[in-house]
Specification:
Layout lengths: L2 H14 L4 H11 L7 H23 L7 H21 L13 H20 L8 H39 L8 H23 L4
Length: 204
């Protein structure tokens, strides 16, 4: 197996490993506001997240930047909580500040934090050359993230249909609000999980 493919596999496994659930939960928080038809916008946001953590990874594995592990582990759920809170507060992306165009920047900045978490895992694996391993790892991460988001989109679409059917069956108004109700439910659950992780990881 080539070095590039080996690190692609490693990156893919790292993002899809249940033991790295905080990164998966962050992706769910990012994707929660989107409908299936918005997949292109969501892909841009996920890619911005990749760019952000790729930058931090490069700085960390070359020794140009180093942050305390305890602080990073605490800040990761902070990013999840803030993303979920934004999902709850911004009802209509079209009327939000900059029409949601700020979200890739938002994801990229938070990607810097998550990249530092990846770096603690990767630093011991890079010995001499780092360009090929770093590229492979990031490609694997991106592929894994897109698969996680794709599964989330299918699941969200199914939940939307169930909610809409339940609203219609109960003769309640506004059945088309199903995506918003699902966003509220997912974001609230994710926020609760992130808050628990924050409490568990307080570094002081």
């Amino acid at each position: 197996m080539s070095e590039l493919l080996a690190f692609m596999t490693l990156g893919f496994q790292h993002i899809t490993d249940p033991r790295g659930a905080d990164h998966i939960v962050f992706l769910l928080a990012l994707a929660a506001i989107y409908r299936f038809r918005d997949w292109r916008e969501c892909v841009w946001v996920v890619t911005a997240f990749t760019v952000g953590h790729s930058l931090t990874l490069a700085l960390a594995v070359t020794g140009a930047s180093s942050l305390p592990t305890a602080l990073i582990e605490f800040l990761i759920p902070v990013t999840i909580l803030i993303t979920s809170l934004e999902n709850l507060l911004v009802r209509d992306g079209r009327t939000a500040v900059w029409g949601r165009r700020y979200r890739p920047v938002f994801a990229g900045v938070f990607g810097l934090v998550h990249g530092a978490g990846f770096a603690n895992y990767l630093r011991s694996l890079f010995v001499d050359r780092i360009a090929v391993p770093l590229l492979g790892f990031n490609i694997g991460l991106e592929l894994g993230q897109l698969i996680v988001v794709g599964i989330a989109f299918v699941t969200f679409a199914a939940i939307d249909r169930i909610i809409r059917a339940a609203v219609l069956a109960a003769s309640l108004p506004n059945p088309d609000n199903a995506p918003r109700l699902r966003t509220l439910g997912v974001s609230t659950l994710v926020m609760a999980v992130a808050a628990r992780w924050m409490v568990e990881r307080i570094p002081w």
